[in-house]
């Protein structure tokens, strides 16, 4: 899925965001709030703290957008910051779990009325937990949010070849984990 | 043949939906605006240890001055459209929606429907607010020096950081305060020294006023007479009764839902009588009941609650949202035609999850085997949401 071109602000709006005008900031949130929240929730696997993380993303965008030279790159700029926030949060949660501070498991907002789906999604996130933070974010943005590889490269500020290589590594790792979990494979293939 | 990675992506798209109500979106937007417009625009970067220490010292001095200077008042915004708030103005919520006031320190006051408040004064971390009538929900962020004074009728509440609901009815002169966390001190007639209310305790009090009306009005003095000194007004004789100083409130259905206690919601509705609950519950309660019933495996009860939202609160955002949830329930149960109908209703009413509803409608039509209709839905989807969450499936259906 290509990034939503229609969201890119024009130069006037960008300047108003830099100036801290409330109406411009509200418009920024209207344009990107849903996208950022969806990315964060699906990457992390639950909605815990997602509102705070979305706020952190937008405050960073506002703080840094004076450094943006090309207004047409605004989409990638926002996605790039959301990626960094998501990666940091994945690492923090992993560390908290490691030292026993975070008892909450990553149980996704899966449908409670469908126990098979719920268990399938739980196992899917357990598999994603075994990927490193960068691979996990890349995997979700490509396969769930369906971002184009070129957009991912822009957001990650790296070459297309690097993104392809990293994604192939993430896919290979995920598929090898899934191969060892028959229930997860059955769930993934039940609607094919 | 799709790979496991692609199938995983499809499963997550299908099952991990991210729904945000328009109200929640507006609150988060207001929070961002408040935070962004009260932060310094340039990050402060130390260049050396000495510069750091000097700057830190300067910062302490500045903060101390800010603390001492009353004009560094806390800013606040009003309503979902983030209007700048003004001290002294009266802000009233409409009969069917709460009115949020969001302060620059992160504290919020949600004036409940038909309620009204007035911010009397703001200072550095200090707010004086008067609840003129109705109910308001307070979430005051605690920081060093935080001091809120909330007045309602003859009562005042001293707050340093806590969450509570306050109600004042000027007609019955009754006052209620329900704590959600932290503690406050309430003062008023008969409790001048203050009563501490904490945790989840509830304080209720009612004032009975007996004004001496028997006294005839004073005679008008002759014009030549020397003016009398102004009389002090006759003091009201106030009888105060403090009722139920401390009692535990029953948690609301929305609070129970947030805790995941679905069984208690369904049980409470059954104790009230399902018919009665469906007939007199608020829209929020009905949504909570519907969710609790769905998550407890009671789809019929969930559907009754949602249909009640549709009929009793027709034309509201809650009713529109209910259409989407009914569509999803029908979708899950395999009643695909009904699902399509409800998604269509949701789309016609302009709900905020239009891209999701249109995509689900398209998929439901495909699953129902209606190739022509699903292709048409895919074409329409790509026209309306070319980058929406179902765009790839739409392109597969309508290449």
Word description of this protein:
The complex is a heterodimer of chains A (192) and B (399). Chain A contains 9 helices and no strands. Chain A has helices spanning 11-18, 22-44, 50-64, 74-98, 115-129, 133-144, 149-156, 160-179, 182-189. The longest helix of chain A is centred in the middle third of the chain and has 25 residues, at 74-98. Residues 1-7 of chain A have low confidence and may be disordered. Chain B has 399 residues and is of the alpha+beta class. Chain B has 3 domains: 4-68, no CATH class; 76-206, Jelly Rolls (Sandwich); 253-397, Tetratricopeptide repeat domain (Serine Threonine Protein Phosphatase 5, Tetratricopeptide repeat). Chain B contains 13 helices and 15 strands. Chain B has helices at 4-15, 22-38, 49-68, 253-259, 262-272, 274-280, 283-295, 299-312, 317-333, 336-348, 354-367, 371-384, 391-397, and strands at residues 76-78, 83-84, 90-92, 99-103, 108-111, 116-123, 126-139, 147-152, 155-159, 163-169, 174-181, 183-187, 195-198, 202-210, 237-247. Chains A and B meet through helix 2, helix 3, helix 5, helix 6 and helix 8 of A and helix 1 and helix 2 of B.
Kindly state the percentage of residues in helix of chain A.
Answer: 55-70%
Output the CATH class name of the largest domain in chain B: Mainly Alpha
Helix content of chain B: 40-55%
Q: DSSP strand (E) fraction of chain B? A: 15-25%
Beta-strand percentage range of chain A: under 5%
CA(first)-CA(last) distance of chain B: 18 Å
Determine the structural class of chain A based on helices, strands and strand pairing: mainly alpha
- General form of chain B: globular
